[in-house]
Specification:
binds adenosine monophosphate, nine-stranded mixed sheet, alpha/beta, Rossmann fold, four-stranded parallel sheet, 29% helix, single chain, GMP Synthetase, Chain A, domain 3
């Protein structure tokens, strides 16, 4: 029995109860979807899953191109109490095999061109139902559910009930499923409506992918919870972004989007005159990008800090000073502290480990109680693996990471995951993967390889072998052959030495 209903979709529909015919999605193909359209299609999909036998808590995996129908799939899962498990479209067979084996989905939704790939990844869970949904909105998911009722009684959900499963690899190279609840999503969306001043008059320019927390929860939550509408672009395409900025009021993006806009001479102050807010997150925004953007447009980009485990933690203020090089102040209900390695809170301005507590923080890693316990302190703070400092006005600056993570174009790459694959290649003795500064992607993946036999391998060969084994964004941009990896007295590879030595490599 649920006393207070935290189902995120229920809260979206309450917002549109008096305006169900409001157009909430306008695509780049000028297709329009009202709230009622989305409500009906998501009801049909939810009814179809129930007809197939799905039970509350079952996972629905999806590896699909971004589309309004894909959004309806997410909403159908919320409505039926199913757990939405979106996957990056770049993942290939060996990556998918792990995710399907671990998430044990009730059904998988994929592009019809990828059915063979999906089937070949189903080693451990061969009885899963496979449905298709293509980027143009066609597919068996829509065909098969078209006979179902367009009405669905959204299932009430408690605060802790599980809404979505997203994976993060971590330093061991084995991806961990992050359990995100309806309460996490609803609470954070409410805080963001307030923090960023969203109203029903806003139009969000949505050009982020929808398999990541940024495009899926952060962008959609506050927009729909305020009854606003969305200019829905299937991808970040610079010409389309410039074309639709004048009709939008808010844009959210990763730093790479902003550097690409600045690189385009058609991006002018005039183009952005209707925008009230540019928001950046998922990776550090360089101070020079912040300054150049202000020079060109008069806008000070609002930088915020979040992660899959926590949604958004801090934000620069809507009104008040937006400080370049900082990620602003804690959101309402979020507690942040910077501690030393013994979890002792450090003095203002001292660099330490960033820890977070609040209703935005996930409940744990899927089937990994020990990893979950390791990630929380005894007083329930989540250890983010990020390093930072808080200034005298409470602004947080992220200065680095204790976790071994590369963020390239806003996508996360855990070096260990790439090293494991490189080390399996014939002729490789050992490897170390690092991130080096890159003007477009923020960071670029670079691999250092020690060969079994010097001179037996080459860069192109390694890159093409890697392309067959891991998603493209994880393939090293450069491969360097070295005689030995630098190690400390404990035998640990000293990646800081490699990073210093090769810092200019990918510029
Ligand atoms: P993800 O789980 O993919 O959202 O990645 C989360 C990680 O991205 C965080 O732990 C940070 O290391 C990094 N991150 C997110 N936002 C920012 C930001 N504004 N500045 C610096 N790093 C960020």
């Amino acid at each position: 029995m649920v006393n207070v209903d935290f189902n995120l979709f229920t809260h979206f529909s309450e917002k549109f109860s008096l305006s169900t015919d409001k157009v909430i999605l306008n695509t780049e193909h000028e297709q329009q979807y009202t709230f009622s359209d989305i409500d009906k299609t998501s009801a049909q999909i939810a009814n179809y899953f129930i007809e197939l036998g799905a039970k509350v808590g079952d996972r629905i995996s999806s590896q699909i191109e971004k589309s309004p129908e894909g959004l309806c799939l997410y909403f159908a899962c919320l409505r039926a109490g199913l757990v939405f498990h979106p996957l990056n479209t770049a993942y290939n067979s060996s990556e998918l095999e792990y995710f399907f084996g671990n998430a044990e989905p009730f059904a998988i939704v994929c592009d019809e061109n990828n059915i063979t790939l999906i089937e070949s990844s189903l080693n451990q869970c061969g009885c899963v139902k496979i449905l298709t949904l293509n980027g143009d909105g066609d597919g068996s998911l829509i065909d098969n559910s078209s006979h179902c009722s367009t009405k669905f009684e959204t299932v009430p959900r408690a605060e802790d009930d599980f809404a979505a499963l997203l994976y993060s690899s971590g330093t061991t190279g084995v991806p961990k499923g992050i359990m995100i609840s309806h309460g996490n999503l609803l609470g954070n969306a409410k805080s963001l409506v307030k923090a960023w001043g969203f109203t029903h008059n806003d139009t969000l320019l949505h050009c982020l992918p929808t398999f990541h927390v940024h495009g899926l929860f952060i962008s959609l939550g506050c927009t729909l919870l305020s009854g606003a509408s969305i200019r829905w672009l299937s991808a970040f395409n610079i010409n389309n972004v410039i074309k639709y900025l004048p009709g939008s009021t808010v844009m959210m993006g990763v730093p790479t989007y902003y550097t690409r806009l600045l690189d385009d001479e058609n991006f002018t102050g005039q183009v952005s005159h209707n925008i009230r807010l540019f928001i950046s997150g998922s990776a550090p925004l360089r101070e020079d990008t912040f300054a150049l953007f202000e020079q060109r447009t008069g806008h000070r980009i609002l930088e915020r800090y979040g992660m899959t485990e926590t949604n958004v933690n801090t934000s620069n203020p809507l009104k008040g000073e937006r400080r370049a090089g900082t990620v602003g102040l804690p959101l309402h209900g979020v507690e942040i502290r910077v501690v030393d390695d013994d979890n002792k809170t450090l003095k203002t301005g001292t660099i330490g480990n960033i820890q977070i507590r609040g209703s935005n923080v996930f409940s744990g890693y899927w089937h990994l109680p020990e990893k979950t316990a390791e990630s929380f302190t005894s007083d329930q703070y989540f250890d983010t693996g990020d390093k930072g400092k808080i200034d005298e006005d409470g602004y947080l600056a992220i200065v680095g990471r204790s976790k071994d993570l590369i963020i390239s174009g806003g996508l996360n790459i855990y070096p260990k995951e790439v090293e494991i694959v490189i080390d399996e290649l014939s002729g490789v003795k050992e490897s170390a993967v690092i991130g080096v500064a890159h003007s477009d992607f923020g960071e670029a993946v670079v691999a250092m390889i020690v060969e079994e036999q010097k001179g037996s391998l080459n860069e192109d060969q390694i890159r093409s072998l890697m392309k067959a084994k891991v998603a493209n964004f994880k393939v090293p941009k450069r491969v360097i052959f070295i005689d030995d990896l630098p190690r400390n007295s404990m035998g640990k590879v000293q990646k800081n030495i490699l990073r210093d030595q090769y810092e200019d490599l990918a510029q």
